[in-house]
Amino acid sequence: MGTIILLVVVAAIVLWVIAAYNALVALKNQVVNAWKQIDVQLKRRHDLIPNLVDTVKGYMGFERSTLEAVISARNKAVSAQGVGQTAKAEGELSQALGRLFALTENYPELKSSANVLQLQEELTSTENKIGFARQLYNDVATQYNTRQAQFPTSLVAGLAKASPSELWEIEDAAERAVPRVNLSLDQPGT
Amino acid sequence: MSEQNLFAQQETNKRKSAWLVAGFLLFFAWIGFGGDLAFYLYTRDLPPERYHHVIPFIGLIACAIAAGTARYAWRNGAKRVLDAAGAQELVNPATPELKRLDNVVEEMAIAAGLPKPKIWIVPDADPNAFATGHDPLTAHLAVTEGLLKVLDRDELQAVVAHEMSHIRNYDIRLMTLLAAMVGSVALLSEVLGRFMRGGGGLGGRGRGGGGGKGKGNPAAAIVLVLWIITLILAPIVSRLLTMGVSRKREFLADASGAQLNRNPMALASALEKIAAAPGATKCIAKGAGHMCIVDPAEARLAEREGFVGNLLASHPPIRLRVARLHGMAYLAQNQAGAGAAS
After folding, report:
1. Which of A157, B61, B95, B152 has a 20 to 30 Å separation from A172 between CA atoms?
2. Residues 53-72, chain A: which have Cβ within 8 Å of B?
3. A146 touches B at CB < 8 Å
4. Using an 8 Å Cβ cutoff, are B124 and B144 in contact?
5. Between A133, A135, A181, which is nearest B329 by CB?
6. Helices (H), A105-150
7. Chain B residues lying within 8 Å of A184, measured CB to CB
8. Domains of chain A: which residue ranges?
């Protein structure tokens, strides 16, 4: 009788370990996947930028420093490694791009060029995609980190080779307060 | 939304979809076999040389039709809805407007962590949108031409986010099945109703003394009355069921959509613009209205509050939806303010 009870208890524990292990592995894969999504979008942004610079150069050749800042920020971002460094380099790139787009306001023929408008839509969308991919990554990574730290699951964390994932922190205060809500209040087309 | 919450919603929708199909099959079985039973009871006491209804072929046929319809709805329901609306798939976005839509859908798919759904354009000047499909991997998202004209980028994004959350929590499966099944229940009861009105006189003449025998057969009368009542009530009940399910899902999709694009105000102003557009969305069939972001009917019953309006509307009043979204935006702003202060 005693052995049966023992067997049942052992079986229950084994089943629980398997379930917890699998849940952790599934979450870990989700984190990796979410990061890949970010990577795809970052690469796209990096590919779009030389195009943008080439198109814009003809109109605003004398804004040399701004254009060079974008190029160098891009090159830094391309070579960045790891979550923290990438986040920092990409933040700087976003700022450089923001300055460039702010300057285009001074060039009416640039603003009305179909080519530039199309590039601008592509970059806006890529920027958004990066933002949403980051949002998803941070959500999933937080879940993963919480799960592996919570009590009974934490016992299996070592077995599943789980380690906390680094979140994509937004360092720049201006970017933290992304003015998404304000944008909707603007007139369309501005 | 927490993972658990989303998972629970998905499971509820999958379970409800299965129950819906089961209920649909049961209804057809009862209509078929109930008819057989009434017929059998009526012909049981007739002299041996008269016809006796022993083989329940009405029930067998009804079950076969129901199974076929359910299978068809399960596999091709989405395609039917899109075809009925005259939607065209967006394959190569040529104009900047379409390119923008393509981008916005991809953005929201990323935010939801789902594959990008197929995009469809409905040739209708009234702004509206809907999503359909069997699961997130085979989802379709359709918008009208009017929607692209009326909304700006953020508002379009908000509408797509709303539809994307319908896709993510399996509302699309439930809603697409409901559309198909409500349609066939209505069709069945109409066809049988006509058949009975036409055939009733014939039967009365043919049976002659049958009336007298019927009196001596209360079981048959009870079955027949129950049968007719179900037939009359079924289209109404299935309609109300659709409306009830749909109303709840709309509020939820508003809220979880706003969590995808983190911009409740954009959906609020999109809803206001859509509601302000005059006219009905003509391309959307009557049976598919509950799938749209805003009730496509011209006289927007959804605007009436109170018990009756509530019961008969497939969507909550826009005013109420907008108010809730404003509330969400206010809370988000307060949270952000508190976060910055700390």
Report:
1. B152
2. none
3. no
4. yes
5. A181
6. 108-111, 114-149
7. 152, 154-155, 263, 265-266, 269
8. 34-172
Beta carbons of A125 and B263 less than 8 Å apart:
no
- Give pTM, 2 decimals: 0.80
Contacts of B111 in chain A (CB under 8 A): 132-133, 135-136
pLDDT tens sequence for chain B (342 residues): 455 577 788 888 889 888 888 888 998 898 889 888 888 888 888 888 888 888 888 889 989 988 998 888 888 889 988 998 899 999 988 888 999 999 999 999 999 989 999 999 999 999 999 999 999 999 999 999 999 999 999 999 999 999 999 999 999 999 998 888 888 888 888 888 787 776 554 444 444 444 444 455 788 888 888 888 888 888 888 888 888 888 888 888 998 898 888 889 999 999 999 988 877 788 787 677 888 888 887 555 445 556 666 666 778 888 888 998 998 888 877 766 554 444
Adjacent-strand bridge partners of B122 = B144
- The Cα–Cα gap between A16 and A152 comes to 10
Does the annotation mark B155 as catalytic? no
Domain boundaries of chain B, sorted by first residue: 3-77+182-234, 88-173+245-341
Q: Do A184 and B104 touch (CB under 8 A)?
A: no
User: Is A184 in Cβ contact with B155 (below 8 Å)?
Assistant: yes
Architecture of the domain delimited by A34-172: Up-down Bundle (1.20)
How far apart (Å, rounded) are the C-alpha atoms in residues B142 and B144?
7
Is the ipTM above a cut-off of 0.85? no
Contacting A residues, span 100-119, partner chain B, CB-CB under 8 Å: 114, 117-118
Q: Give long-range contacts, CB 8 A cutoff, 24+ apart: B134-141.
A: B134/B74, B134/B75, B134/B77, B134/B78, B134/B172, B134/B173, B134/B176, B135/B170, B135/B172, B135/B173, B136/B167, B136/B168, B136/B170, B138/B78, B139/B114, B139/B167, B139/B172, B140/B78, B140/B82, B141/B105, B141/B117, B141/B167
Q: Which of B108, B260, B263 sits opposite A181 (nearest CB)?
A: B263
Work out the angle between the directed axes of helices B96-112 and A114-149 (0-180°, nearest 10).
10
CA dihedral B53, B57, B63, B68 (to 10 degrees): -160
Does residue A133 belong to the interface with chain B, where contact is any CB pair within 8 Å? yes
Pairwise CB contact (< 8 Å): A118 & B99: yes
Q: Nearest CA of chain A to the CA of B97: how many Å?
A: 10
